[in-house]
Amino acid sequence: MAATRALAGLRVIEMAGLAPAPFAGMVLADFGAEVVRVDRPGIKNIDLLSRGKRSVALDIKAPGGADTLKALCRKADVILEPFRPGAMEKLGLGPAVLQAENPGLIYARLTGFGQTGKYARLAGHDINYMASSGVLSLLGEKGKKPAPPANLLGDFAAGSLTCLLGIQMALLERSRSGQGQVVDANMVDGLAYLASFVHTFSHIGLWDTEKRGENLLDGGAPFYDTYETADGRFMSVGAIEPHFFRNLLRGLDLDPAAVPSQNDLSDWPRMRTEFERAFRERSMKEWTEVFDNLDACVTPVVGLTETDKHPRPFLVRGPEGDLQPRPAPHLSRSSYFAKPDRRPIEGEHTRAVLKELASFSDAEVDALIERGVVVDGSVHRDGWNRNSFGQEVDKDSRC
Amino acid sequence: MVAPLSGLRVLELAGLAPSPFAGLILADFGADVVRVDRMQRFTTDELSRGKRSVCVNLKTKEGVATLLRLCEKADVLIEPFRPGVLESLGLGPSILHARNPRLVVARMTGFGQAGTYSQMAGHDINYLATSGVLSLLGRAGEPPLAPGNLLGDFAAGSLFCVVGILMALQQRQRTGKGDVVDAAIVDGATYLASFVLRALESGIWAPERGTNMLDGGAPFYDCYETKDGEYMSVGALESQFFARLLGGLGLTADDVGDQIDQSAWPEMREKFAAIFRSKTQAEWSGVFDGTDACVTAVVELPEAGRAPHGADRRLVVEAAAADGGDASLEAAPAPRFLGLGQDTRKGTGPSTPFRFDVRSRPSVGEHTVGVLKENGFTATEIAQLARANAVNGPGEGKSRL
Fold first, then answer.
1. CA separation for the pair B275, B288 (Å, rounded)
2. Strands ordered across the beta sheet of B231-235
3. Of B386, B329, B312, B239, whose CA–CA distance to A198 is shortest?
4. Out of A155, A189, A218, A341, which one is annotated catalytic?
């Protein structure tokens, strides 16, 4: 298949980290970028999002380590680093140094709190960034404490995706100016921006941000919520517009005259009780059959690993037999992997990458290995190419 | 720095939530975004600062021809309609690309261009349900709970749509050709949850909602109510942060048992809850700010630009209304660009000031004449189109709401 890959030829150095940076790197790799992940030698990388990446095991704190990374960055398009602000500068690897050597380098910094500000040097996690951004206060049930949606909004949406936006925009700008950029992609800024709609809805009186769980779109409205079925599963109801609401009632076999008026907030509790009772009468499968033919905005709540049986083939099986999601969005002219690549072993590509990207000779690589600056992970005690679950895989199973 | 997307020409066919936010992001970063509205007085789009608005009646032949002509010079078209609607208007990608092979056609929908549900109506909650992501969210033993419409509409929707557009533009630099971007919220949501999918498969995430480390199951990753009815967020996952959390709460390891012993969690949660209730939010911030305990105040959204750290970052600014109406709160575009070679300085000062000029929102049809003229329409042609009700006429700028 001769389709192009959107990001073919893009060279990315991803400094190993948790969740957000690996996901950003994975998206770039999925769309054709060459992503080299720099791992710390000896530390098992728990990155579950590493398909299609290559791994170099390099200790940037060891003598000669920083210079080795500098060499790799000279020919790179993007460096993606998730460390605490100032950490790279301390090692002599900050933007002033790396971009002096490569002025076209996009220096993407992905953190929770950002490069500056009162909390910039503090440790934190998704829930904290959500809290500081003002977004967490919006989410959760009425009368109960705020509830973040796992770590999806902070780490991956506001973190990884905002970082990707910044990288892509910087690359487009570079094609005109020839110059790189420093991108301060962080979850607090990203979350606040992501909630732009809430400000506008609030401005026109449709979202009271002081009343968590009582609004149209946050679980307050009975016609925008989930309901338990007879078999303990759930249906999602998003019947906002009047004609969808009418179809909802039709599907539930409820007499519109007996149900409170849709927009009468004071009657919402009674409406909710009616809906709860009605949905509990049939199984999820039965309700799905009813509503698949009615434009009511009512659909089953599917389990994450069930989606491969569902209308769209979201998931594919990787070379290790595991379920992997297909990249989004779909570009019609571009392909992404036909089958997902397997995940690299730490340090598997140290030698190859140093030679390719930074023109090291074999002898130079050997010297670095001897000094403990890098590790060649392609040579394992138990032999070649074991995946992170310890199973043997075909060493040529990249596509 | 010149805005990264300056010179990029975007046509945004008016729609709800996801497509306007995608258009806003492009506009915020310098693109020239023209929103194509229906022939009506009002718009539901408030995410429109810096955009221009034209009214084009796509139900008329002349209106369709007008839009096609506007597409000739455009780089991006964003359309939010049900799959096939664009085709039925005579504006499908085959026609658009015959006119302008460089155009990136971004199709922003919930269920996608193909698939069993592609013709069905839906909203954020339904797309999340179908993607498998909604099943992950909510408290243990409770029904699934969508996080407003932030995750579906704006994250899985708008953000992936813009990422797709930008990647297609990069691709175009090499190939010279545009593309069709099928930006489906269901696809984006499942993909966004890649980490959780992998974690489920490898057994470190249990399928029962609300019982895991990161979804509310763990007492050291949750929110707690304070004496004054506010909340603190606790994200003390790593053992060293957990130790600082205990220290701040005046507890020892013996008081709560082993951090990862799930049987100890209920009691741990009760102890934490009781202690958090003994001080106000401000007092707790005084205890934990500057420490590595991963404990921070839960800030209300309108206050985010005034709270510690949020003020430093200028998360939210207040902008006077051009028409003298109420000031509005505007969230600053992210990410921030710091400039070539810009090192992070030592210490925690406020953010390097960045420019965020809050531009006004257009009235419906305010820029029709200007935009048409830019695209080579003569005054005579414009008058004809107005008579044919294909566009709004000059002087017919309509009110915003």
1. 14
2. B221-225, B231-235, B295-297
3. B329
4. A155
Residue B202 to chain A, least CA–CA distance (Å): 9
Is residue B187 flagged as an active site residue?
A: no
Q: pLDDT tens digits for B139-192? A: 999 999 999 999 999 999 999 999 999 999 999 999 999 999 999 999 999 999
Q: Which residue type sits at A239?
A: A
Q: Which of residues 125-154 of A touch B (CB under 8 A)?
A: 125-128, 130-141, 144-153
Bridge partner list, B255: none
3-class SS of residue B221: strand
Judging by beta carbons within 10 Å of its beta carbon (0-12, 13-18, 19+), is residue A191 exposed, middle or buried?
buried
- pLDDT higher than threshold 80 for residue B354: no
| Bridge partners, A392 (sequence order) | A386
3-state secondary structure of B318: strand
By DSSP bridging, strand A54-58 and strand A374-375 are antiparallel
Residue B237 C-alpha, separation from nearest chain A C-alpha, in angstroms: 8
Q: What is the pLDDT of residue A278?
A: 97
Q: Which residues pair with A226 in a beta bridge?
A: A236
Asked if A228 reaches chain B (Cβ–Cβ under 8 Å), the answer is yes
**Which of B153, B179, B187, B215 does the annotation list as catalytic?**
B153
Among residues A125, A267, A295, A322, the one annotated as catalytic is A125
Strand spans (E) along B177-285 = 179-184, 221-225, 231-235
Alpha-carbon dihedral angle through residues B151, B153, B156, B157, given to the nearest 10 degrees: -170
Q: What is the ipTM for the molecules in this complex?
A: 0.93
Orientation angle between helical segments A187-194 and A162-177, nearest 10 degrees: 100
Report the SS3 class of residue A34: strand
Six-digit token pair at A376? Answer: 């060649």
CB pairs under 8 A between A and B: 549
Q: Is A112 on the interface with B (CB under 8 A)?
A: no
What are phi and psi for residue A392, nearest 5 degrees? Answer: -75, 140
- Which run of H or of E encompasses A71? helix A65-74
CB B308 to CB A146 under 8 A? no
CB contact under 8 A, A314 and B131: yes
Residue ranges of chain A with pLDDT lower than 50?
Answer: 1-2, 381-399
Active site residue A203: no
